[in-house]
Automatic annotation (TrEMBL), chain A:
Keywords: 4Fe-4S, Electron transport, Iron, Iron-sulfur, Metal-binding, Repeat, Transport. NCBIfam families: LutB/LldF family L-lactate oxidation iron-sulfur protein (TIGR00273). The keyword S-adenosyl-L-methionine does not apply. This is Iron-sulfur cluster-binding protein. One of its GO terms (biological process) is lactate metabolic process. Residues 297-326 form the 4Fe-4S ferredoxin-type domain.
UniProtKB/TrEMBL annotation, chain B:
It comes from Paraflavitalea soli. It holds the Pfam family CCG. InterPro entries: Cys_rich_dom (IPR004017). PANTHER family: LACTATE UTILIZATION PROTEIN A (PTHR30296:SF0), UNCHARACTERIZED PROTEIN YKGE (PTHR30296). This is (Fe-S)-binding protein. Residues 3-84, 127-220 form the Cysteine-rich domain. GO terms for molecular function: oxidoreductase activity. One of its GO terms (cellular component) is cytosol.
Length: 460, 247
């Protein structure tokens, strides 16, 4: 839910209060990145693979309309029903419509960031329909009435002891139990009943092949397969950017995805769905929800290349220390900070500033999205459109004035140093100067370099 | 070869000794070094804050100050990257483009242009190198751990020439310290947490001196170190490379 009323810095400092949790969050995700580094280094042609993936995606985006039509025609001829949704609301209505047609009351869903983006669960629950997320991590956050905090590891912010407590409350496991195997078995038992009782299964889509109309869903738990094969109706929800032209291109992306995501060679299940089994139905809902707008924004177009591996989150030193919820958006981390302002600039104006522009995200991205450059570009757009505080604009104007003139700069520098020496307490005011909360200021020297140089340059 | 020194504004004001070390080091290598008095700031704080549109007069001032030199050298990867990527001026775009191509961070200038093979410096200490992100990933001063490319590091190449210097290995050799320009103030909590993690890494590996190619990253870490009264010395790489040199 987009219920945020606090900004990223506020939410982050809240998260940072629990030092132990932050350290554990940081170390756990760093460990995932470390594993990732190890396996990608086993592939000497890794950089060529990235380049190839990036080019395939560039090409697909440049002819997206054609590939979408090709995909639709192929899917229809496979016996699949294809729906088009312009936005989240239409997506939810379509899914609900299919359910109503079948009188369905119980849904199992495998992890899909798109349905999260569209707030499908809340929508369906409001209509009295039970939706069960079947990915273990997703189920944990769902029981805890939260959003996922990571696109691949949705419950990464929750410790196993807390999972034990959540399961104790909702699934009746023993109080105080935190053994992962015990908890996983309990979840499996619980989910199995849900799978068997479900009328309809919803899955996401990792890749949609234009040539064949087939979709591929990657999971580690096999929950997408189990859901889709047990239920009579399978609804697959996909964003328009999930397309790739041909089956042969899958080999490139399947090699990249799991390695970059978690350091596995490949996901445990890469399930291909092409046509409904005899006696059952398969639906594909193709969703825009702002994606064509992003396609039209030259500077941000290639954010649509994202294959949701989550690596930019794992590597992001800000994400690791602020937690996924601080991004108040379905997709957190650096890529989320690019996608969110496209949906709502006012609500998400803080996110492109939640970065040091260190560039680690750009280097880790398997499809070579220039993530940190796009964050820089968003800052320019948001500022020009007036989505930053007026005080910041005013102070930046003063700064620009001082820094554009050698005389004003020399004068201001001299007085700033003097003031700092005379009234150090002013600068050390923790309220007025956030720098000073945990850091000392550099000791101002008597002489700037230019003053020194003026005096000494003759002898140099 | 006429070399212009580009000294970032905060180095000029707060760390004149870093500028002096840079100047001495370049002169020691026999270069004809000048400090154009007209220079102020590269405009990066405004641009990264989203106010690139306010950097126009900063840019034209920068171009006026630095036009006509063979090379422009700066002890700051971050500011150099900003100039390389963002220095533009409608009225003198040709001059802007020349500058964008002639500006170098100190270490890359020494390894790639001057091609120094030895430095007579001596610095018998256990040193941790903080690789500033803008230098490392932006200017490609060193390979990054995310990419699958042969290892290289221009700062390390230079530090290895210093007699007695022992470079310690770090658990996270290229993690950001959290300075990030205005980020260090607007996201104070995350910024400080990031800096403190770096410092834990140095402590764990028993470094006594922290060095780096960007004084801004070092200023932030020094601030945390001083507040915690930790026994580290913080020095810019120019100071390390110039230590023990006879002037
Ligand atoms: S932006 Fe790149 S690194 Fe981040 S989730 Fe998408 S594909 Fe992965």
């Amino acid at each position: 839910m987009n219920t945020h009323n606090i900004t990223h810095p506020e939410a982050a400092s809240e998260f940072l209060r629990n030092k132990e949790r932050v350290q554990w969050h940081d170390e756990t995700l760093w460990f995932v990145r470390y594993k990732r580094d190890k396996v990608v280094n086993e592939i000497p042609e890794w950089e060529q693979l990235r380049e190839l993936a990036s080019q395939i995606k560039d090409h697909t985006l440049s002819r997206l309309d054609e590939y979408l039509q090709e995909f639709e025609a192929a899917a229809i001829s496979n016996g699949v029903t294809v729906h088009w949704a312009a936005d989240a609301a239409e997506h939810n209505r379509i899914v609900h419509g299919i359910m109503a047609k079948h009188g369905a009351q119980k849904i199992v869903k495998s992890k899909s960031m798109l349905t999260e983006e569209c707030h499908l669960n809340e929508y369906l629950e409001a209509q009295g329909i039970e939706v069960v997320d079947t990915d273990l991590g997703e189920r944990i956050v769902q029981l805890n009435k939260e959003m996922p905090s990571h696109i691949v590891l949705p419950a990464i912010h929750i410790k196993k002891e807390e999972v034990g407590e959540i399961f104790h409350q909702h699934l009746g496991t023993e109080k105080g139990a935190s053994d992962p195997l015990y908890l996983a078995l309990a979840a499996r038992e619980h989910l199995r009943q849900k799978f068997l009782a479900a009328d309809i299964a919803i899955t996401g889509v990792n890749f949609a092949v234009a040539e064949t109309g087939a979709i591929v869903v990657c999971t580690n738990e096999g929950n997408a397969d189990l859901g889709a094969h047990l239920a009579k109706v399978h609804i697959a929800c996909m964003g328009i950017e999930k397309l790739i032209p041909r089956t042969e291109h899958l080999s490139v992306f399947l090699r990249l995805l799991a390695r970059n995501a978690t350091g596995q060679n490949i996901t445990a299940y890469s399930s291909h769905f092409r046509k409904p089994a005899a006696g059952s139905e398969m639906h594909i809902v193709i969703v825009d929800n702002g994606r064509t707008t992003q396609l039209g924004r030259e500077a941000f177009r290639n954010s649509l290349k994202c294959i949701r591996c989550g690596a930019c989150l794992n590597t992001c030193p800000v994400y690791r220390r602020s937690g996924g919820h601080s991004y108040h958006n379905a997709t957190a981390g650096p890529i989320g900070a690019i996608l969110a302002p496209n949906l709502d600039m006012r609500k998400n104006a803080d996110l492109p500033f939640a970065s040091t522009l260190c560039g680690s995200c750009t280097d880790v991205c398997p499809v070579k999205i220039d993530i940190h450059n796009q964050l820089y570009q968003w800052r320019q757009v948001l500022t020009k459109e007036g989505y930053v505080p007026a005080a910041k604009t005013a102070s930046m104007k003063v700064m620009a004035g001082v820094l554009s003139s050698p005389a004003r700069y020399t004068f201001a520098g001299k007085w700033a140093r003097k003031l700092l020496r005379w009234f150090p307490s002013l600068a050390m005011n923790k309220k007025l100067n956030p720098w000073a909360r945990q850091r000392d200021l550099p000791e101002p020297p008597k002489e700037s370099f230019r003053e020194w140089y003026k005096k000494n340059s003759r002898e140099l | 070869m006429r070399v212009a020194l580009f000294i970032p504004c905060y180095v000029d004001q707060f760390y004149p000794k870093v500028a002096i070390a840079t100047l001495r080091l370049l002169q020691h290598l026999g270069l004809d070094v000048h400090y154009p008095m007209q220079q102020t700031c590269c405009g990066q704080p405004m641009a990264n804050g989203g106010f690139e549109h306010l950097t126009g007069s900063c840019n034209s001032n920068f171009i006026k100050a630095f036009a006509g030199y063979d090379y422009i050298v700066s002890p700051s990867g971050s500011c150099v990257l900003h100039i390389k990527d963002h220095l533009h001026d409608d009225k003198q775009e040709a001059a802007a483009s020349t500058i964008r191509h002639k500006v170098y961070e100190l270490c890359e200038f020494l390894t790639d242009i001057v091609q120094v093979k030895s430095i007579k410096a001596s610095f018998p200490q256990k040193v941790a190198l903080h690789q500033g992100c803008h230098g490392q990933r932006g200017l490609k001063l060193a390979s990054s751990t995310e990419t699958v490319v042969p290892y290289f590091s221009k700062p390390v190449q230079l530090l290895k020439m210093v007699e007695g210097l022992e470079l310690v290995d770090l658990d996270r050799p290229d993690e950001c310290c959290g300075f990030g320009g205005t980020f260090c103030v607007t996201e104070e909590a995350v910024s400080s947490a990031m800096g403190l993690s770096r410092i834990d890494d140095y402590t764990k590996h028993q470094a006594t001196v922290i060095t780096g190619t960007d004084m801004s990253c070092l200023m932030h870490q020094e601030g945390l170190i001083k507040r915690k009264k930790l026994p580290f010395e913080v020095m810019h790489i120019s100071e390390v490379l110039a230590s023990g040199l006879a002037f």
